Amino acid sequence: MNIKQKDTPTPLLQVRGLCKYFPVYSKGFLRKQIGVVKASDNINFNLMPGETLGLVGESGSGKTTTGRSILRAIKPSAGEVILNYKNNPIDLTKIHHKDLKKLRPYMQMIFQDPFSSLNPRMTVRDIVAEPLIIHKMAKGSELEDRVSRMMKKVGLKPEHRTRYPHAFSGGQRQRIGIARALIMNPALIVCDEAVSALDVSVQAQVINLLQDLQQELGLTYIFIAHDLSVVKHICDRVAVMYAGKIIEIASTNDIFDNPMHPYTKALLSAVPSPDPDQPMNMSLSGEVADPGNLPPGCAFAPRCELRSDECEQRIPDLEQKPNGRYVACHRGTGLRDSVIPG
Amino acid sequence: MLEKNKNILDIKKLKVSFFTEEGEIRAVNDVNFSIPKGKVMALVGESGCGKSVTSYSILRLIQKPGKIMDGEITFHPSEGKSFDVLKLGEKSDMLYNLRGGKISMIFQEPMTALSPVHTVGNQICEAILNHQSMTKAEARGKAADMLAKVGIPGAKGRLDQYPFEMSGGMRQRVVIAMAIVCNPELLIADEPTTALDVTIQAQILKLMKELQQEMDMSVLLITHNLGVVAQVADEVAVMYLGRIVERSDVYTIMKNPRHPYTMGLLQSLPSLSMDKTKLPSIKGSVPSLTDIPEGCPFHPRCPYYKPEICDTGTPPDLVSVADNHDAACVRVKEIQNESSAKEEACV
Fold this sequence. Notes:
The complex is a heterodimer of chains A (342) and B (347).
Chain A: E1 13-25, E2 33-47, E3 52-56, H1 63-70, E4 78-85, E5 88-91, H2 97-103, E6 107-110, H3 124-134, H4 140-153, H5 170-182, E7 188-192, H6 200-217, E8 220-225, H7 228-234, E9 237-242, E10 245-251, H8 252-257, H9 262-269, H10 309-313, E11 319-321, E12 325-327
Parallel strand pairs in A: 3-8, 3-9, 6-7, 7-8
Antiparallel strand pairs in A: 1-2, 1-4, 4-5, 9-10, 10-12, 11-12
Helix pairs in contact in A: 3-4, 3-5, 4-5, 5-6
Chain B: E1 7-20, E2 23-36, E3 40-44, H1 51-58, E4 66-75, E5 83-84, H2 93-98, E6 103-106, H3 110-113, H4 120-131, H5 136-149, H6 155-158, H7 168-180, E7 186-190, H8 198-215, E8 218-223, H9 226-232, E9 235-240, E10 243-249, H10 250-255, H11 260-267, E11 319-322, E12 325-327, H12 332-346
Helix pairs in contact in B: 4-5, 4-7, 5-7, 7-8
């Protein structure tokens, strides 16, 4: 599905130079700041309405920080996040937090752990209805009606509205989390590892549900995940993150069929295939880079088999390549297929 | 017995229950399988299927309110007589020597498996000194060798580090070093890579496979990840609600599964080589162990369910469907005919 050829040229979301740095303090009484952890650093991308963008990377790569900075669940250190709200571009990083509340229904989040993201002392009805009550969007019988309809839509029985989260299985709890996010009729949903905690048989159900809801309601997803096979299944475009930076962003087919960045390639080769005839063939050694202590050049250089002197000295920019893809590698283009080892 | 046994471990009719306020929970119910010598046997299933409880039973690590109710776990060491692990006394020397000696274990979460207040070197030395007669200095030397063997750079210097000074992948390497330091004959690995990133997971799996071949160990691998199974295992047993529903070699399980649950699991995996279509999924969710369905425990979720055949009587036993291939399904023959008919119709 190529979203770019659609008539609507205005992206729903434009992220420009988004950064989130966490300060590191020294030990002792004075707690002087001695450094920063660049959890996400200079993130740029556009998100079209109805599109699903995958954010993938290993732990500590900054995918969750990026997702949360976009929604301003945490305040970014720098950059712009321009949301196209009813044809008005609004910079989410600049507006006052009181105005932000009005925009909240427009963008919602689904969390990873269905066990800790639901209040155990609230019934399902209270959990799903709470956003409507906070934003004074419905009350009385209309409220109850909307809750029931939403529960039905995500595959829960409205009769179970008086039950507490502990009475539900993991997959059902994730459905409650989805219902809570969707009841506001949002346009943008950030799914932060929304299916990672689920068992395989239930994971497939929730993936299907998310896809059905997207088609029905025209939702736009930012899908944060570390499981590449799930990402391939659900996303239109994929951004690969490493040590706080996007190192490659391209359409799902390009990323999976023809990865250009050596890290993307290594990441793909590390996924164990359920087919015993396709042996795992990963040559990547070393550990994930520590965002608090990055090398001066490309963060991936110490693990990269193709590194040159340039890689160790200068940080590569995210450069545009054909097919609307972007790659941040000094050695990426031209070398692929022939030299980059699988 | 002059003939050497070709299995390292035989589990027969193992039953483990947990006694809770909600009543008796049968976490493992009549489980039978064998681990062949020098092979990797994988136990796969979703959460709550009893795979970890089965593995804990082998080392008698089930704690209250859990209890091993019945069964035999016969261990066949390369030297000496075979014996039933479940008949050993709770505080006997035999059991003490077995744990971490002939049979050792790798746990899922490397942070909780290691003591945070002891150095890595001391923890590995403890395992050596408990099972082998060595001086402390010799043990320290061996610990350093072991760390080098599991691919930790600068092993000598690492001995005096604490676990918090290491990354997740390094910690898991330490746990592996600790588990194999006494040359175990059987290594139980309970979700050894679940907490790790994919690139680190690939490194650890490669390391485990190499060590297994080099040391000629038998491995019982507990995992929920079918990709890991396909890459590492030789033999596979699939568990559902405390029972083994299918068992065979890895090729047969992955390419030609016969039990509807195994088929469903494999189909519901999104794969890198598949296109973006609707995922086939298993309907419903895993029932609670307090409320196991009558008859075949899988019948409420099974697409091949037939009333009065699947939902009554005792749960089906594992029956042989081909050479070295067992499945616990009463309709296994009919299902094969049905699905091959479906395939023909599609073609």
